[in-house]
């Protein structure tokens, strides 16, 4: 479990540190203070620098552009230069993410690469004017080198490059990044298959009953006629009353959000769950039960949770859990993030309860 996290030259942080992290951590702070960046940094660290994590972050942020070759083939390029503080893209530019808690460090730097060295590792990209590499150095794995175009973009789908990068990756703890838009239906369907194999569907249904007390079954539909406009599998809910099954979309964002959260908790046993805007789609009356689900599952399944929120209701719901369940107090932390400071401000359970009782603003 991560107790201390250090960032250097990572996105909006020149140097930043989080201390006194707990089993469940809520990151708060004003807009554009770097809360999501911290989630991404944790994801990159626990994955031991898996390049797919970089690609996923760039995709979520829209740090991409599409090119077409002379034959009209479409390629997506990912601008990895935005990972570096100040969007710098010079030879020798470096960033690092580290912890003293057994996860070591991940370091990214921009380096010149000789053409013959690049050919040994990857398929050459035609039209590349400047041979540069993004080097990923890991404390517990072999280094990775990914060839970059002169504008700092990466064409991840070059097969030889992808094989070389993934061969050098080792197994890392399970981790899941849940965005404010939740997981796509196909991603949830993949996790649901594992839930069925493990016989844990009742755990997910019990969690969903926070919002719908008479929920009895969840079904992921297959086949073209049951798929949505984007080709994603449909999800329908069944009830104890025997009423007709209803598509999950009929219940708004809250049910889909809670399903994504519940499935992610099942999937990340023994690992790390990163949730951006954890309260999205949930009414304030559901906050206490949601936090109870997250904390109890995190303890039972050895999951470390990092979540973000802008909502005072979210903090109040957490305080309500701590007030009624003092046995959970040692496992929760709020971290207030501000870029003009060198480290976050940590609030333990006593601080959280006092702030809630006195209406002190922690956000």
Lateral strand order in the biggest sheet: 2-1-6-7-8-9
Largest sheet: 6 strands, antiparallel
**What is the overall number of helices?**
10
Q: Given the C-alpha coordinates, what overall shape results? A: globular
Strand portion = 15-25%
| Radius of gyration from the alpha-carbon trace, in angstroms | 22 Å
Helix content, binned percent: 25-40%
| N-to-C CA distance | 25 Å
Mean pLDDT score: 85
- Structural class comes to alpha+beta
Order of helices and strands: EEEHHEEEEHEEEHEHHEEEHEHEHEEH
Number of strand elements = 18
Folded structure, characterized:
The chain is an alpha+beta fold. It contains ten helices and 18 strands. It has a six-stranded antiparallel beta sheet with strand order 2-1-6-7-8-9. It has a six-stranded mixed beta sheet with strand order 11-15-16-3-17-18, sandwiched between helices. A hairpin with a 5-residue loop joins strand 4 (64-68) and strand 5 (74-79). Residues 122-129 and 225-231 have low confidence and may be disordered.
Topology:
Elements: E1 5-10, E2 13-18, E3 24-28, H1 35-46, H2 51-61, E4 64-68, E5 74-79, E6 94-98, E7 105-112, H3 115-121, E8 132-138, E9 144-148, E10 153-154, H4 159-167, E11 175-178, H5 185-198, H6 201-208, E12 215-220, E13 235-239, E14 246-247, H7 253-267, E15 272-275, H8 287-301, E16 304-308, H9 312-324, E17 332-336, E18 345-347, H10 349-358
Parallel strand pairs: 3-16, 3-17, 11-15, 15-16
Antiparallel strand pairs: 1-2, 1-6, 4-5, 5-10, 6-7, 7-8, 8-9, 12-13, 13-14, 17-18
Helix pairs in contact: 5-7, 6-7, 7-8, 8-9, 9-10
């Amino acid at each position: 479990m991560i107790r201390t996290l250090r960032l250097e030259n990572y996105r909006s942080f020149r140097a930043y540190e989080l201390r006194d992290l707990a089993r469940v951590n809520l990151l708060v702070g004003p807009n554009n203070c770097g809360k999501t960046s911290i989630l991404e940094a944790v994801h990159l660290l626990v994955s031991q620098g898996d390049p797919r994590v970089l690609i996923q972050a760039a995709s979520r942020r829209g740090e991409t552009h599409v090119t077409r070759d002379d034959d009209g083939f479409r390629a997506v390029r990912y601008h990895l230069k935005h990972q570096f503080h100040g969007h710098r893209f010079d030879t020798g530019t470096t960033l690092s993410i580290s912890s003293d808690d057994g996860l070591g460090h991940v370091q990214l730097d921009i380096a010149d690469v000789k053409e013959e060295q690049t050919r040994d590792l990857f398929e050459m990209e035609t039209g590349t004017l400047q041979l540069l590499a993004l080097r990923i150095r890991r404390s517990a794995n072999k280094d990775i080198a990914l060839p970059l175009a002169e504008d700092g973009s990466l064409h991840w789908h070059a097969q030889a490059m992808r094989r070389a990068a993934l061969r050098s990756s080792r197994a890392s703890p399970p981790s899941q990044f849940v965005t404010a838009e939740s997981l796509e239906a196909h991603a949830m369907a993949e996790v649901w298959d594992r839930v069925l194999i493990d016989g844990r569907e009742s755990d997910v249904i019990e969690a969903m009953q926070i919002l719908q007390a008479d929920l009895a079954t969840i079904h992921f539909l297959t086949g073209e006629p049951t798929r949505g406009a984007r080709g994603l599998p449909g999800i329908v809910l069944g009830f104890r009353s025997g009423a007709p099954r209803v598509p999950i979309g009929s219940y708004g964002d809250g049910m889909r959000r809670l399903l994504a959260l519940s499935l992610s908790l099942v999937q990340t046993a023994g690992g790390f769950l990163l949730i951006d805007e954890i309260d999205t789609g949930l009414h304030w009356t559901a906050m206490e039960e949601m936090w109870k689900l997250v904390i109890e599952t995190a303890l039972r399944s050895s999951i470390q949770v990092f979540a973000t929120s802008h909502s005072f209701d979210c903090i109040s719901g957490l305080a309500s859990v701590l007030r009624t369940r003092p046995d959970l107090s040692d496992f929760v932390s709020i971290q207030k993030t501000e870029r003009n400071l060198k480290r976050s401000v940590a609030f333990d359970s006593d601080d959280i309860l006092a702030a809630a009782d006195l209406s002190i603003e922690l956000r």
